[in-house]
Amino acid sequence: MDPPTDALSGTSAGGGSFGTPDLRDFMEQLNLEDEDFDDLVIDEADLEINDSVRWLALARVHTDKSFSQVAFYKDMRAAWNPAQPVRFRPVGPKLFVVQASCLGDWERMMYQGPWLFRNLLVLMVPYDGFTKAEEVPKVFMPI
Questions:
Q1: Which residues constitute the domain of residue 123?
Q2: 70, part of any domain
Q3: What are the pLDDT tens digits along the chain (143 aa)?
Q4: Looking at residue 120, which CATH number applies to its domain?
Q5: How many Å is the maximal CA-CA distance in the chain?
Q6: DSSP assignment string, 70-120
Q7: Distance in angstroms (rounded) separating the CA atoms of residues 59 and 44
Q8: Is residue 139 part of a domain?
Q9: How many structural domains comprise the chain?
Q10: % helix / strand / coil in the chain, to the nearest 5?
């Protein structure tokens, strides 16, 4: 079973992947070169872009064992008790992008820890949404 790519409810993995082409194959068929992106301009004042990267964090579960992502989503929502929905997106094995819907929920997630999932540390760090998740230093834990 493939992991959910974007979990808002945490109750369902969504539709299956039957009949969907592999993204890597699709990108190769486009034959895009680096110079194709030279004239690409991203407006930093664009509200849609700013909203999509607002109140983001990276969460890393410190374990060598596998675990249910849905159980992680459910347990973290219960621990944080957010006022508004929280979205999870897996970006690696045991690494997740978490997006709160309001500043109060984000501050609770970031600063009222440390957080545990099945007695394992969940390390939370602020995230800008553009840096590769693997390159973000994960040495931040409020005590």
A1: 40-128
A2: yes
A3: 455 555 554 444 444 444 455 666 766 777 777 676 666 665 555 545 545 567 888 988 888 888 999 999 999 999 999 999 999 999 888 889 999 888 888 889 888 878 889 988 888 888 887 777 777 776 655 55
A4: 3.30.70.330
A5: 49
A6: HHHHHHHHHHH--SS--EEEEEETTEEEEE-SSHHHHHHHHHS--EEETTE
A7: 26
A8: no
A9: 1
A10: 30, 20, 50
